[in-house]
Amino acid sequence: MANSQQVRPRRRNHGRSVPAAELADKALRSIVPAERLRLVRVQIAWADALPARLQRVATPVAIDDATLVVDVVDNQWLHELQYLRSDLLERIREALPDGGVSKLRLRVGQVPPPPEVRVIPVVASTPVLALQPSADTLEAIASIPDDGLRDTIATARQALTRLGRGA
User: Fold this and answer.
1) 27-108: CATH homologous superfamily?
2) For residue range 95-148, what is the model confidence (pLDDT) as tens digits?
3) Cα–Cα distance measured from residue 118 to residue 16, given in angstroms and rounded to the nearest whole number
């Protein structure tokens, strides 16, 4: 009887659901330093906000208070991006309004090549079915006990046959 009278402690979140994103964010913040997370968020915003041609020559590498430090591949690009500094800063602010970036410092440094994007071609192929279904196919369709489902499958089979013939 003593065991049946014991009361289990209630869970802290009992009665309310917690979104998985909130749990993941909490776990991530407990492992990764806040400044590193902030830099990663800025790097993601950088990739979304800037055209690929600029991503190949410049990359955010550090964040110091409100200053974003960006490595540029060479002096020519450094000079070019000096003219685009306010535009770059504005794009980052738009992409990440709560990022807290108000200054941009450009310097010559290592810029890794962007990740290779592999495009997997989508092959749209229409199955080519014989005009007359095989005996196995007819038997399989006939064995379906539900009349509506059997008719739907037979109609779909006929439609695929017509598509394969170009009709």
Assistant:
1) DnaA, N-terminal domain (3.30.300.180)
2) 989 888 999 999 999 988 876 777 777 766 655 677 788 888 889 989 999 988
3) 42
